[in-house]
Amino acid sequence: MREILYLHGFLSSPQSQKATQVREYFAKYHPDVTVYFPTLPNIPNKVSEYLLQYVERNLKSVENGLKVIGSSMGGYLATWLVEKYGGKAVLINPAVKPFELLQDYLGEHVNPYSRETFTLTEEDITFLRQLDTPTLTQPDRYRVMLQTGDETLDYKEAKAKYQHSLLVVEEGGDHSFQGFENHLDEIASFLVAST
């Protein structure tokens, strides 16, 4: 059983461009791989419980470690899950300290995909801090894709945290990771070639 979990970022969804590219790529080139695209709660203090239940309920191969693709906040969550369950993750412009970044986002938001309105609170920030993984047990479990032109996150934070991981650092680009589709072969190879 070959399975991958895709985790979208804050204010995103499984309908995002990267998620769609992953869905189409695996359907065409690796139809034997099941890719799961959960819709993560917009409110951070609900995310960890939701993810733990989702993994236990849906992923059959969890006892052998997870295979995860995480973008932005999804990269932060992917790291937390891999440190908990084992496995491997591909992180695309991952958030390293979202509990600091989101201080500037306290208040009401509307998810542009679901149109859901929600309020980000200090409690959410505290909760995110509890999911932090300052030390990676096995850095080689991570393939980390960064673009220096990321306008949302400082790529140097991820470069420092994952310095002993497989790093792909591209000049320019942006937070969405321009040209992401050109890396899907390498992503698939890293996550499923040896399983």
TrEMBL record:
InterPro entries: AB_hydrolase_fold, UPF0227/Esterase_YqiA. SUPFAM superfamilies: alpha/beta-Hydrolases (SSF53474). It holds the Pfam family UPF0227. Coiled coil: none annotated. It comes from the Bacteria. This is Esterase YqiA. It comes from Alteromonas aquimaris.
